[in-house]
Amino acid sequence: MGDVQSRNVTSVITLLTDYGLEDGYVAACHGVIATIAPEARVIDVCHLIPAGDVRRGAAVLAQTIPYLPQGIHIGAVDPGAGGARRAVAVEAGGQVFIGPDNGLLSWAVAASGGVRAAYEISNQDYFLRPVSPTFLGRDVFSPVAGRLWGGVRPSDLGPEIPIGRLVSLPEPTSLLREGSVEGEVVSVDRYGNTQLSIAAGDLQALGVRVGDTLGVWLGRRQLALPYRETYAAVPPGELVAFADSAGLIAIAVNSGDAAQRLGLPPGAHVRLSPTP
């Protein structure tokens, strides 16, 4: 896409929110975009992010962005909605990310090559009127996305923000030590699968292969889990570790909820190692 002013009709607008599917919030955003940019193609990334879970939203957007066409990407997960949080437009790798400046966009921006420029969204000429302070997705992000798709430049939206002043979430940690690798739970999906910050390549570096048994330390607890290609490789109700579609290690229960069974919320510390 490059400069949004020279966009082509194949670029898309995407939506990621915690609005759910039981109300008309998502439809309202679609309606605003369709009114302003009727030819734009809109992709729904996810609307079932747990309410206010910025970290989960950041993980979903970052892991989805490599498979999306270049476009304008709206993120609306903000437990501080209605407060003083500024709205931002961030250019990165030919993409434009729109959302609250709360770190939600930061991992996807990094996955797109890093910030090229960022702007505060403050030019009310591009907003709906009146603006509801609790529904910026409809009244600010969606109309701004439609205007960008139509040729408005990000720099038209408001003053430029120094890159270092953007809010960023801490990157998930992973540390390879002699004989083990330490990480954390990045996110938990709707099935209760716990995605770790540990890459499959880290286990390969330790000599762990699919079919082996994996030592798992969760605080003071120690487990021995089968390391397989998929959760379906173990009987229903059994725990398993596998490399997920993002290339990260996940712990799951076949037909069950691993996060609930093990008490593993996002951010929980995990250590993995080969078993003798």
Pick out its properties.
single chain; 276 residues; alpha+beta; Rossmann fold; Elongation Factor Tu (Ef-tu), domain 3; 2 domains; 8-stranded antiparallel beta sheet; 6-stranded mixed beta sheet; 14 strands; 30% strand; elongated
What features would you describe in this structure?
Residues 183-271 form the S-adenosyl-l-methionine hydroxide adenosyltransferase C-terminal domain. It comes from Nonomuraea solani. This is SAM-dependent chlorinase/fluorinase. Belongs to the SAM hydrolase / SAM-dependent halogenase family. Residues 13-158 form the S-adenosyl-l-methionine hydroxide adenosyltransferase N-terminal domain. The protein has 276 residues and is of the alpha+beta class. It folds into two domains: 4-165, 3-Layer(aba) Sandwich (Rossmann fold), CATH 3.40.50.10790; 174-274, Beta Barrel (Elongation Factor Tu (Ef-tu), domain 3), CATH 2.40.30. It has helices spanning 25-36, 54-64, 106-111, 136-149, 200-205, 258-262, and strands at 12-17, 41-46, 71-76, 87-92, 95-100, 117-120, 174-177, 180-188, 194-199, 213-218, 221-226, 239-243, 248-253, 269-274. The strands form two sheets. Strands 7, 8, 9, 10, 11, 12, 13 and 14 form an eight-stranded antiparallel β-sheet that branches. Strands 2-1-3-5-4-6 form a six-stranded mixed β-sheet. It starts with 11 loop residues before the first strand and ends with a strand. Residues 1-9 have low confidence and may be disordered.
